Amino acid sequence: MREADASGSEKLPGMKKPETVFSQFSRLSFRAGLRTKILLAMIFVALLVAVAMAAANYHLRRKDLLRDFQMFVRKTSGTAALSISVEDIMQIEWNADAAKPEFQRAKNVLKRTQAINGLKEDEIYILRPIHSEKGETEFVVMAHDKPFIGNTYIIPEVNRAAFRKALQTGQPQHTEIYTDSHGTWISGYGPILGRQGQGVAVLEVDAEIGRFFRKQRAELISSLGVGLGALALAMLPGLMFASTLTKGINLLATNVKRFQAGTTLARVLIETGDEVEKLGHAFNEMTVVVQEKLTLISFVSRFTADAARRSRHDPALLNGGEHEVVILFADIRGFTRFSENRDAMEVVNGLNQILSAETEVVLSRGGDVDKFIGDAIMAVFMQHGAGVNSAVLCGKELLRRIHEETVNTGWDIALGVGIHSGRAILGAMGSSVRRDFTAIGHTVNLASRLCGKAGRWQLIVSGHVFNLMGKELKVDFEPADPLLLKNIKHPVKVYTYTLPIFSNGRNSGDHHPRP
User: Fold this and answer.
1) DSSP annotation of 320
2) 431: which strand partners?
3) In this predicted structure, what is the pLDDT of residue 14?
4) In terms of Cα–Cα distance, which of 268, 309, 306, 315 is closest to 287?
5) What pLDDT digit, counting tens, does each position of 367-396 carry?
6) Tell me, what's the pLDDT at 51?
7) Enclosing H/E stretch for 168
8) Residues 503, 507, 509, 510: is their CA dihedral positive or negative?
9) Which of 20, 301, 333, 363 has the fewest CB atoms within 10 Å of its CB?
């Protein structure tokens, strides 16, 4: 009698149902010994963990390399530009000027910078703008043996914004990665400023990034090989403990998938007393290391980190919105003169010492350092509670603290501070490659202008800030003539505070002994 299958078709005695490739593999796997199953499973886990580790390391190193590389060209060009005399540059017009001492002094700066930073001679030179909007420039000083002064060079279009910004703001700038006929590069522009602060020329530093990415690929292959080798060795003893290993491997595989999905704090708890337990511990340690590296991707301000955390529940938060804030700018006076007779490392270390002290003061007063702008800082205080008072106390303490630093070090520099309060837009600004959560708007611009007008060891606050101060702080300030500020329509009413030892008896509200 014939049998009928579930579909109603007849089935002859002894007839076998056709097998798919998957069903054949499953049947063979089912019949395979436990050692083979464990070996296959552990090979899969080893590959997955090794690839995840290598991919995470590759991703982290790529961002680190890009950030470090951009800072390298920016700092190198900016620091070298500080050592160039604008008077020397003005004396260089033609190839015949290469014999002048002015040209040789500037060239020596390029040569020293080239040697210190491992640059090639065609990776550092000084350009003078001819038509900045079109990116048209001419060579002024170069490190080559044969000069080509006056030759025209067109700044690549993708770099012109950074080039113009360096000239306009007087602050070093860097480009993103770009490619031309000679390779793939990142460039830094260090402005050389005239006596009035205008950009006269730019010291450009180029660096080809292929060597860094080649190193990164080598690190990737090495880490992948080390990971695979270590995990392969770790799985061999496990073949002797089939039943225990199966449970441990399943648990480990589950958490590896969680790790791959982004749960960097995934943990496994295996208490078998054998190699499986060690493998679990190795996985746990690996996730800790990865988490530590993730925290070092970027050092961001506190309110930036807070905004990023809150954006998980409110993605629109990063798009920007108006908030009441207090903006403080602090700028070093005399830094160019300070840098002239010092080598690059001493200048960088000195600047970092000052900026570190300023950061400590801002954080101690409840503010947040939004950004460093050359030798200046921009700090933000949220306008809630005693925000204005905190910012004003911070400004006064900055003057005292930095003056102490100059007394201790003998540095001939000073500090000027400006503070304004009002509404500003807080949001994520930048590109898809890199963004900053920062404050922009009229309030920020006005605070910056006030800082620019502040004298040595002087704090200038707007009339709006003065009105919001506590009475105990107002006695330390004196009214000053309204200021006409660039791009500000109406004169701004201001009040000033000068560090007591420089105030000739003014600001009597401060009672501090002479340092």
Assistant:
1) -
2) none
3) 46
4) 268
5) 999 889 989 999 999 876 678 999 999 999
6) 67
7) helix 160-169
8) negative
9) 20
